[in-house]
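Example pasted here:
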Amino acid sequence: MWKDAYLESRVLSADPIELICMLYERALTLVSSARISLAADDVPARCHAISQTLAILSELESSLNHEAGGQISKELQRLYQHMRTRLLTANLKRQDAPLAEVHALLTTLGEAWEGIRPQTSAAADGATHREVAACAGASAADRWGGSSPVETGAAHSGHDWKA
C-alpha cells in the first residue's frame, strides 16, 4: 500500500517531462516482464504485460501536440505505431525479437527524455510546467544538435500542466 501512495505522490508532483520519463520506465519494465513471461511460457502474464505496454504507447501517442511539434511529433507517432505493431506481432507469433526491438526503441527514447529531465529541477519556483519544459528544451537543443522535442512542441503536451 505504501508503494501506491509513493507512486501517487510522485505522479501528482511530477512535471510533464517527469511523467513522460515515468511512462517510459514503466513501459520498459513491462516489456522486460513480457520477455520473461514469453521464455517461461506464461501466456496470461505475457498478454497482460503487452496489453499494459500498448496502453502506455497509446497514451504517449494521444498526448502528442502535432501543431506545435511538427515533424518530430509525426515521427514519434510513427514510432509508437510501429512499436504497437511489433508488440502485437510478438504476442501473436510468440517471438522475442519484436519485444527486443521495442525494448531497444523505448530505451533510446527514454534516454533522450532523461537527458532533458535534469534541467527541469533548476527552474524557478512558480513557473508553469510548460515554461519549465521550454527552458529544458532550449538547453537540450545544444545536446541534440538542433531542436528538442520540448522546444518544437513534440513534447507530450496534450494537457495544460500547472505548477
Notes: Residues 63 and 158 are 4 Å apart (CA to CA). Residues 66-93 form the longest helix (28 residues). The helical segments are 2-13, 16-39, 43-62, 66-93, 97-120, 129-144, 149-152.
